[in-house]
Hints:
- The protein is globular, with a radius of gyration of 16 Å.
- It has helices at about 35-50, 55-60, 95-115, 135-150, 170, 185-200, and strands at about 20-25, 60-65, 70-80, 125-130, 155-160, 180, 225.
- The chain is about 35% helix and about 20% strand.
- A 7-stranded mixed sheet has the order 3-2-1-4-5-6-7.
- The model has no long low-confidence stretch (mean pLDDT about 90).
- It has about 230 residues and is an alpha/beta fold.
Amino acid sequence: MTAPFTPRLKLDNRDPRVACVLLLDVSLSMGGAPIDELNRGYAQFCGELGEDPLARKRTEVAVVTFGGEVRVAQPFAEARELVPQRFSVSGTTPLGEALDTAMDLVEGRKAEYRAAGLEYYRPWLFVLSDGSPTDGARFERAVQRLSDMEKAKGATVFAVGIGDTADMTQLARLSQRGPARLRGLQFGPMFAWLSASMQQVSNSVAFGPESDTTQIPLPPVGWGTA
């Protein structure tokens, strides 16, 4: 995959930013009801996040899909500019490449924040998968890179397993928080939680070069199990 493209920052908005990358599994096993509910949940997320006066300006969202190939389905955009889209399923689960792509996006965006003199909150990576990584060696390297990033307080990582086939052992390697398993197909409640969490972060004053958003109270996770 070529280096991901992201639009330039809108410098007329001087608010601090929180970058959030959604990594969405769209492999063939997500076909049918799962992808339908994922699409509905993402549309809900776009709408809810755009309604909060601060989150709509401060939250920047990018979407990386992985199913056969890895694609930047949504380059970084302010929440007020997000529009729903329909994701379709294809192929296997190249999670390692997706992680590298997401980390490249985050590092590039943080560099832009610094160059523009903007404060920012610690970025979020939110990973959804219903299977096991199919790019073994690439996945192993990406896990180490992600671990180094999280330990350096360069990102906060959440991992969510979808359905009984999700490889929770591998997902547990992605985050110090440990993964959650989605209850059924409750994508709507999960995206509502993510939207509310982004609103909590963007309304806080815990920003700085590598701000610790882990101390910001987040809504209860009623949509998943540990």
